[in-house]
Amino acid sequence: MNNSTDSLGWRAKFGVLVPSTNTSVQPEFDGMRVPGVTNHISRIAIPNIALNNDDDFNRLIELIAAAQIQAVDSVMSCEPDRIVLGISAETFWDGYAASLRLKAELEQHTKLPVSMGSDACRRALDLFNAKTIAVITPYQPVGDRNVVRFFEEYGYKVARIVGLKCESPVKIAHVSEARLKEAILEVNQPDVDAIIQVGTNLAMARLAGIAETWLSKPVIAINTAIYWDALRASGIEDRIEGWGSLLSRY
Length: 250
Fold this sequence. Notes:
This protein has ten helices and eight strands.
């Protein structure tokens, strides 16, 4: 936990990396913020390219990777206590071992702890003792395959996955709660222990908490998982209502 004299971030200052096309992470993280914690956004500059196929999606991952360190170095000047990746796809890319390498590289570069989506989802699923999961993504098929690979390499069974194939990074944030509700119902079956939504620009954190009340099982939005991980790993145990059981009970 931070013991600094920062007047607003006296408990923790989070340096948050967000693709420049992403309009959902910042408002959702700010909605979950508790007194004494501050979020400091550094935007990874990428173009809003068309996402029509796997090649386009691979290019997007390359663009994010190429611009990421500059964004990291920019936010470091505010002296944050933790780096928080408001990015999803690259944290799952190439499987579990690659995810561990990404985290280790960022921690070595910044000398700070890192919270990120793949790791946070894994921690949340372990907390709920989930074994068989279903996943909702905004991705093209290559993104879905990488998400499935990560979870299966860690030991979960991915029973179902729905990829929404959003046409650009910006359009991910245009997906309505009505469409997301359809996706939740589509992937849910009795054998599914938990539903995970990935893709940080899908604004599903509020809906995921509501969905738990009709499904009576964990529905975990990745932005909720990331922020929960950042708070708890920083020693901040406040229970926060309105975003589902992960933040309100654990």
